[in-house]
Specification:
The complex is a heterodimer of chains A (148) and B (246). Chain A has helices at residues 4-11, 24-27, 52-66, 89-98, and strands at 30-35, 39-43, 72-76, 100-101, 118-122, 130-135, 141-145. Chain A is of the alpha/beta class. Chain A has 4 helices and 7 strands. Chain A has 2 domains: 4-82, Fe-S cluster assembly (FSCA) (GMP Synthetase, Chain A, domain 3), CATH 3.30.300; 87-145, no CATH class. The longest helix of chain A is centred in the middle third of the chain and has 15 residues, at 52-66. In chain A, the strands form 2 sheets. In chain A, strands 4-7-6-5 form a 4-stranded mixed sheet. In chain A, strands 1-2-3 form a 3-stranded mixed sheet. Chain A is elongated, with a radius of gyration of 17 Å. Chain B starts with a helix and ends in a 6-residue tail after the last helix. Chain B contains 11 helices and no strands. In chain B, helix 1 (2-20) runs antiparallel to helix 2 (29-57). Chain B has a single domain, classed as Ferritin. Chain B is globular. In chain B, 65% of the residues lie in helices and 0% in strands. The chains are: A alpha/beta (148), B mainly alpha (246). At the A-B interface, loops of A face helix 2 and helix 6 of B.
């Protein structure tokens, strides 16, 4: 019989499809695991229209099935809504190393050179969860996590 | 309740599709990405509203069936959102007027006594907030921009103005929803909308049209011919190949 802790451990090995340096657990989209007659995983979308949501569900299913979980159910939970506060603190450094400024209120610092001198290019970046900035020191463009 | 949910979901569906028509055509890459992301948010919100509508209706229709298998007269969106894109300024003005209304509407609906509605709204309001910030910024920059951009924004405002009044016109369904604590009357939003609108227009150096004439009918199923044309494109695949999946 699998335990809840074991399911959480397996899920923390599943990378986010858009930002593979983060696991789904670090991203904060796994909202609950219940082990009973069946294994129930509660998942919340980051943005209501995020196309990664379908892939995330598929990845969870593939991972748990590969570990022998047969009776599995995924439930979408929209309330309370996902917030960037649920991204694990230790994940912030991983994001920065990957070239994405982690969520914070106010102006983001450049993830490459660390400069605070950055300007917004567009409120929307390569995915719904990010906006597009440019560093005025090293001149590199970069994505920054929107703080919601 | 079903009709109320259609009104919410059809607004975001129709505007989401309209905005998605810009994908690959916007004047600059950043705007192309922004418009596509906004369309995506709105289609995502549609799935929540129409998903709940299908559940409430209880006839086995899911969000996709409601989006792709209803005809124009069954749509309950505001006429504003079905207006064609025309130029970029026109699209932005339509978005701004919608965002300003939508953001206030969702803020009010956070207090809905129906937990399912409040749950959906808590998710959507964060996105709507972000959309409004962007719309406001662009309206001010283009309105208070070059002579040409100013003229285009003023023309867009005047062309779209007759579609604003419908947002605040209460009908029997609105009164029922208000009595049941599901949604406050749309007219109760009007003073806040006016105040916020006047502030932005002043900064954008645009002049608010004086006429209060309002085109109505979208919320009860009487639409402009533009909606039919849009649905012909949007629904083609599900009409030609029902239940197609990939």
């Amino acid at each position: 019989m699998v335990t809840e802790a074991q399911i959480w451990a397996w899920l923390s090995e599943v990378p986010d499809p858009e930002i593979p340096v983060l696991s789904l657990v670090e991203l904060g989209v796994i909202r609950g695991v219940e082990v009973g007659e069946e294994v129930l995983v509660k998942v919340t979308p980051t943005y209501s229209g995020c196309p990664a949501t379908t892939v995330i569900n598929l990845d969870i299913e593939a991972k748990l099935r590969s570990k022998g979980v047969e009776n599995l159910r995924l439930e979408t939970q929209i309330a309370p809504p996902w917030t960037t506060d649920w991204i694990a603190p230790e994940a912030h450094e991983k994001l920065r190393a990957y070239g994405i400024a982690p969520p914070r209120t106010g102006q983001p610092s450049c993830p490459r050179c660390g400069a605070a001198n950055t300007t917004l290019i567009s409120p929307f970046g390569s995915t719904p969860c990010k906006s597009h900035y440019k560093c005025a020191d090293c001149l590199e463009p970069f994505d920054a996590f929107k703080c919601i | 309740m079903f009709e109320f949910l259609l009104r919410m979901g059809d607004n975001t569906l129709v505007l989401g599709h309209r905005v998605s028509e810009w994908c690959g055509h916007a004047p600059v890459l950043e705007e192309d990405i922004a418009l596509a992301n906004i369309a995506l948010d709105m289609i995502g919100q549609t799935r929540l509203w129409l998903g709940l509508a299908g559940e409430v209706e209880g006839q086995g229709r899911e969000a996709d069936a409601l989006a792709f298998r209803r005809d124009a007269w069954d749509f309950r969106n505001l006429l504003l959102v079905e207006r064609p894109n025309r130029d970029f300024g026109h699209t932005l003005m339509r978005q701004f007027l919608f965002d300003l209304w939508h953001h206030e509407r969702l803020a009010d609906l956070c207090l809905s006594e129906d937990d399912r509605v409040a749950g959906i709204v808590a998710k959507c309001v964060k996105e709507a907030d972000y959309h409004l910030e962007r719309s406001k910024d662009l309206i001010i920059r283009l309105g208070d921009g070059s002579e040409e951009s100013h003229a285009k924004m003023q023309a867009a405002l005047e062309a779209l103005w007759p579609y604003v009044g419908e947002m605040f016109a209460d009908d029997a369904l609105d009164k029922k929803m208000a009595e049941q604590g599901i949604a406050p009357l749309p007219s109760s939003q009007k003073p806040r909308f006016d105040k916020a609108l006047n502030e932005v227009l002043a900064k954008a150096t645009l002049t608010r049209p004086e006429s209060d004439f309002a085109q109505k009918g979208g919320r009860t199923g009487t639409h402009t011919e533009d909606l039919g044309h849009m649905l012909a494109t949007m629904q083609f695949l599900q009409r030609a190949y029902p239940d197609a999946r990939w």
